[in-house]
Amino acid sequence: YGKQWYQRRVRGSRMADNLAANLAKFNVKDDRIVSFEGQGIKLDDAQTAEDIVKAIETCPNMEILNLAGNTLGVEAAQSIASALQSRPTFKFALWKDMFTGRLRSEIPPSLRSLSSAMIIANTQLIELDLSDNAFGPDGAEAIRGLLTSPVAYTIQTLKFQNNGLGGGGVIIADCLKANHARAKKDGKSLDLRTFIAGRNRLENPGAKALSEAFSLLGTLEQIEVIQNGIQYEGVAAIADCIKHSPNLKILNLNDNIMTPKGAIAIAKALPSAKMLEVLNMGDCLVKSKGALSVAENIKGLTNLKELILSYNEIKVDGGEAVAKMCAGLSSLTNLDLDGNHFGSEGKEKITDALGADKLSILKPGLDNDEGVPSDDEGEEEEKEEKEEEKEEKKDSPP
Known about the structure:
alpha/beta
């Protein structure tokens, strides 16, 4: 079964990079990997699952089971779960895109069977990847038993990319909080470091609940919640989470409804994130006001390698301020300001602010700049900003 399946990585994929790093860290050997990745097998019952069951049974020290890119039915899941019950060495559950073509009602019982098997085996799970399985809140509920058990004390990586979680985000957060309390009673602690849950309709309730859980744990190094419809209230909760996550290295909030108000909240929390290496606030309606605040607060981030503020309706004053501050960050290798409202003169000001020595970090450049807004667009934007200021004053304490 070999290691080739995880070595074929997509360039720039942090999810793949995390996995490779984990496998190297835990010295996973070839004879501890069972992989049927991408084979498109229709696993309906015990007979169709026979090859997988045999592979597990002939791998007594199995640490990895990769079933990504197949389609698992309820009976087949039960057969595989029976084999898993005798594998306490199991650590990596790589189960993304594992229910293609299945009825949504089939997925929870399958997840419950697999979860129960890991609990019976008393595994020390390190990574659970259930990305690209459209199971919604019901799927999150189905793994509640797993996430609130001692098996989950050792989990370092949770991946729920594109699951349609919705309210399931709150369920997962509740599980983390409950298991934190349980671990504390047992004299242990949770070790969650990476949480990826993009494209899940988490919105404010999910963002708030998860941020509270992450703040409680204080262990997160990577948080990626792109394209989740998160607005100011949820963004403010994430900002508070940053202050309680001293080891945070990657924060990806791309394509949420942050607005300048939310961007300012995140920016003000950044001085607490001394270890931060990647900050992605692209396509978040940050605008100039938010960009100015980011510029003011990144000065002390000496580990920052990548800053993404693309497609944010930022005007030249905000872009220039960011560029000036980034020129002094020796660690920075990638600054993305593309798709904003600089215009040709503004682009020159930004490149001048960076200086000739730093121009190479401007990736992918400014070719997709949307130009200076027309007078009508500018007036409309000013109206919106005034309305936002009024709302901020309402929300501010007297």
